């Protein structure tokens, strides 16, 4: 199916019964996609349930459940992975939805065990994986490069739909407040990044590049937490700020002068859309997601794991920190949610043939 237009879903006369499943514990890009899609579909008057692992409903800032709309029913399952998968399948059989939509590996395994119950859809948050996706009914790719790996005939039941992002205005005092709180001078150049602090995101390369670039009166801010946080903190000089997880990333984007992604892998890069909403110049490594979105931010991409090249780009970009205006219309959330619903309807119709 490729990326053909799907626009009728928001006008569906009969409400659909939809169940989203994501069994991870902490909020990141894939979790945001699942929650926002469930919220948008509920706003469009569909009957939407979100099944979470009970750890995703814990009382902590980076949990998942507190971000869900009251219009979405939330069901929790507990236990280790195999038990949580079993319990989720049991819930699905009770709910009898029109569509079950899986996000990430454990959720895909749930759907493998309920063939024939409903339309079983998964989003490729990373890439096609035979063991996760081959036995499902339909797939949504978030970037065109993912489609090539999907075998026939499943590719005929797949579509590419861009991720989405709504502008989230920063608090009016965010730039001044955060710089004062972290003792960053008002006239300093702040190079910033957002994301989980782990090997795939390349913050270690960014730290090396920042040191090599040696831009006068500059600070590096790494917003996020993860398994590599402590090791990175121990290597970082005083000019590197690492505030951990933030519930208001838009405030940090207002504090930045330049956004950087040094990722080793980035399937789409929702964070790019957030940086573009903030009008920031973008420096990025040549991941698949950055290559797809590069026409929008129109900057030379950096070789992956190449700290020297990244340092040079940081030096160049530090001379051009003017805010940009990016064309964001194609990432409008309600329109993208309508395209997902249209895809569901199309695939349900195909099943009835």
TrEMBL record:
Residues of the Glycosyltransferase subfamily 4-like N-terminal domain: 29-137
Cleavable signal peptide: none
Q: Does the keyword Cell wall biogenesis/degradation apply?
A: no
Under the heading CDD domains, the entry gives: GT4_GT28_WabH-like
Please report the stretch or stretches of sequence annotated as the Glycosyl transferase family domain: 175-320
UniProt GO MF annotations: glycosyltransferase activity
Q: Which UniProt keywords apply?
A: Transferase
PANTHER family this protein is in?
Answer: SULFOQUINOVOSYL TRANSFERASE SQD2
What is this protein's record name?
Glycosyltransferase family 4 domain-containing protein
| Source species | Alishewanella agri BL06
């Amino acid at each position: 199916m490729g990326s053909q237009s799907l626009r009728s879903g928001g006008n569906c006369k009969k409400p659909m019964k939809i169940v989203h499943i994501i069994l991870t514990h902490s909020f990141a890009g894939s979790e945001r996609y699942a929650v926002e899609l469930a919220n948008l579909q509920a706003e469009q008057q569909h009957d939407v349930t979100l099944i979470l692992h009970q750890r995703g409903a814990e009382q902590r800032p980076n949990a998942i459940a507190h971000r869900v709309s009251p219009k979405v029913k939330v069901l929790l399952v507990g236990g280790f992975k195999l038990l949580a998968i079993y319990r989720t399948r049991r819930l699905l059989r009770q709910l009898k939805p029109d569509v079950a939509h899986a996000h990430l590996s454990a959720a895909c395994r749930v759907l493998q065990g309920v063939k024939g119950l409903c339309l079983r859809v998964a989003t490729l948050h990373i890439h096609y994986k035979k063991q996760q996706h081959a036995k499902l009914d339909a797939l949504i790719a978030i970037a065109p490069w993912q489609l090539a790996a999907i075998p026939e005939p499943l590719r005929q039941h797949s579509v590419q739909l861009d991720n989405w992002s709504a502008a989230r205005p920063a608090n009016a005092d965010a730039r001044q407040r955060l710089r004062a709180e972290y003792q960053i001078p008002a006239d300093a150049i702040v190079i910033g990044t957002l994301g989980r602090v782990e090997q795939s995101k390349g913050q270690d390369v960014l730290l090396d590049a920042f040191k090599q670039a040696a831009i006068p009166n500059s600070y590096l801010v790494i917003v996020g937490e993860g398994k590599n946080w402590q090791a990175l903190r121990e290597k970082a000089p005083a000019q590197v700020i690492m505030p951990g997880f933030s519930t208001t990333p838009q405030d940090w984007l207002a504090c930045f002068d330049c956004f950087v992604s040094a990722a080793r892998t980035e399937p789409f890069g929702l964070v790019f859309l957030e940086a573009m909403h903030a009008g920031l110049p973008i420096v990025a490594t040549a991941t698949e997601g950055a290559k797809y979105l590069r026409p929008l931010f129109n900057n030379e991409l950096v070789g992956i794991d190449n700290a020297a090249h990244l340092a040079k780009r940081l030096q160049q970009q530090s001379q051009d920190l003017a805010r940009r205006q990016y064309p964001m219309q194609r990432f409008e959330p309600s329109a993208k949610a309508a395209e997902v619903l249209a895809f569901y309807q199309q695939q349900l119709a195909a099943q009835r043939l």
